Automatic annotation (TrEMBL):
Keywords: Cell cycle, Cell division, Chromosome partition, Cytoplasm. InterPro entries: ScpB_csome_segregation (IPR005234), WH-like_DNA-bd_sf (IPR036388), WH_DNA-bd_sf (IPR036390). GO terms for biological process: cell division; chromosome separation. This is Segregation and condensation protein B. The keyword Cell cycle applies.
Length: 191
């Protein structure tokens, strides 16, 4: 292998490991002196017609999936979605109190929930409508799904952690602990 090949390999390695497109000066900072532009041009030719290509965007370079191969990635790519605090609280209430109505969820949380919160949980496959409660207005009830159990590694809802488990794991907020202690204290205990 020639020194020019070793230099091109170094440029290739830097670009491959980069989190974002890199400028020639940015690449040079990693590989030292040499013909970075020449190495990039050789690599672009070498990668032409492959599954990935070396491309220039403005004054920066990056590896990207070849345009005619992108459809293979779209099908298998899973979108990671972060749940909002409201969604996490709502999911916990449903899991611990199911079947539960929207009004009951709001009473426990102390605030209204947006329709979108339940939609996100249903889209994730963790919550489903369970039926209607036989009370005036016949509100819809919600429950968790087998997908919820699978995702969280539970055999059944009985495997959900209890209050002692949550306390031991340090997952209870100090305000939750203080509120619980106040509820345990009885009037006249300070006599």
């Amino acid at each position: 292998m020639t020194p020019a090949d070793d230099f091109a390999r170094a440029v290739e390695a830097v670009l491959f490991a980069a989190d974002e497109p890199m400028s020639i000066d940015g690449i040079r900072a990693h590989v030292g002196k040499g013909d970075v532009r020449g190495a990039l041009e050789r690599l672009a030719v070498d990668y032409a017609g492959r599954g990935i290509n070396l491309v220039r965007r403005g004054d920066r370079w990056l590896f990207q999936t070849a345009g005619d191969m992108a459809h293979f990635l779209r099908r298998s790519r899973e979108e990671v979605r972060r749940l909002s605090r409201a969604a996490i609280e709502t999911l916990a209430i449903i899991a611990y109190h199911e079947p539960v109505t929207r009004a009951e969820i709001e009473a426990i949380r102390g605030v209204q929930i947006s329709k979108g919160t339940l939609d996100v949980l249903m889209d994730a496959g963790w919550v489903r409508p369970m039926g209607r409660r036989e009370v005036p207005g016949r509100p819809l009830t919600f429950a968790t799904t087998p997908g919820f159990l699978t995702h969280f590694g539970l055999e059944s809802r009985r495997d959900l952690p209890g209050i002692e488990d949550l306390r031991a794991a340090g997952l209870l907020d100090p305000i939750d602990l203080a509120t619980e202690e106040l509820a345990v204290e009885k009037p006249g205990d300070d006599d």
